[in-house]
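Quick one: structure tokens for this chain, please?
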Amino acid sequence: MTARRIVAIGGSDAGVSAALRARELDPEAHFTVVVADAYPNFSICGIPYYVSGEVTHWTNLAHRTAADLAATGMEVLTDTRATRINVAEHTLDILDPAGNPGRLPYDALIVGTGALSARPPIAGLQGPDALGPADGVHLLHSMGDTFAVMDSLTARNPKTAAIIGAGYIGLEMAEALTTRGIAVTQIEALPEVLPTVDPDLGALIHAELERNGVDVLTHTTVTAIERTATGALSLTTTHDGETTSRVVDFVLVVVGVKPDTELAADAGAELGVKGAIVVDDAMRTNLPDVFAAGDCAHTHHRMLGITWLPLGTTAHKQGRVAGENAVGGDAHFAGSLGTQVVKVFDLVAARTGLREHEARSASPDWHPVSTQSAPDDHKAYYPGATPVHIRITGDRASGRLLGAQLVGHRSAEVSKRVDTYATALFHTMTVDALNDLDLSYTPPLGSPWDAVQIAAQAWTREHRLDHHRQALSADTSPRSD
């Protein structure tokens, strides 16, 4: 019996995770990973920390070296571009580093082409004459983008920079550039930074940015970028109907990403939410023996159903499922909860599950209500206690936990505390049931009731006790015959 031939397109989280899982289960399979650039298995999430200098060399961003990957038995073709999927023939057309065409046969194909930076409709960013790295204007999503940014920072030695977008990467890059001594202006079109959490929690991050010298402009839209006669960059912005301009030395545009699906779509793959590839929970597409995983594929969410939520953690899990099934397994992606965390200077913000308005839209059966509290991260008598701002959303009728948002100091273990909520959500626990969890305690690190549980008790006091009282009142009210 001949060995199965598995091909993965894309050498980031999903593609390499698929290859590793497939090799683990079927060591005789021949696994080829086709990578468009020279950087397989690099951590895109680590880019801001290389820019800041905290990661001292770009090679440290590699999850695994080329030698590590080769040692697993997989074949990695770098600087090789996939050009066409021939579905009926079960072959993949490629161009090698010299531009020579080739063809790879496959028994199973895994599409892990990831995502591309979104380019907003700003004058100066569109068309053949669009400003780019040579002008000091950058998108940021790949290692190639990263090297262009670093070259620009070295050559231009900017004193000022504007970051368009205040999502996760935008906030991390504001810290990175500030760490390099650059005066940063952060521009966000929405009412508050970090729009994945509620605005009053985003306001805490806003204040932290300003405390560290970042000039934050919210509810502000960039309409044009122009290069001045001196080589600087002039940004035209609007805020509340008023138009202003600002001149900086360097511009970073990080307003989100979109799924990279052109190759799969040309082969006939069905596209769905946000143009992502439609897959079942086994990561199978509508094409025979073709799987898709990572940022190019849509996301099965445990509470929302089908959505698109590009996250590195999700890509690793989806890739593992695709790799197992490519060698004949029967794995299923258990679903995402959208658990996310970001550090911005000395604050950490995290979320999991649904915010109140998201839960209200997700199901007519839910009656979401929220409570915000700020318990200390550890016993107040031990030095250094700091509040963790926690907003819990739950269903008023059933008491089911629906989501949690947290903002606290970087010492407050925010990322691990949001994981407690994520675990509870995964198992559809009630808010009340959080109090039954046997969580660790020592005064320097926590309290007998952890902050996670104190916030749950605050929600219960505000909503469930009132609900019980109303029910009791209805049951004991006098009857009139």
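Residues 451-476 form the longest helix (26 residues).
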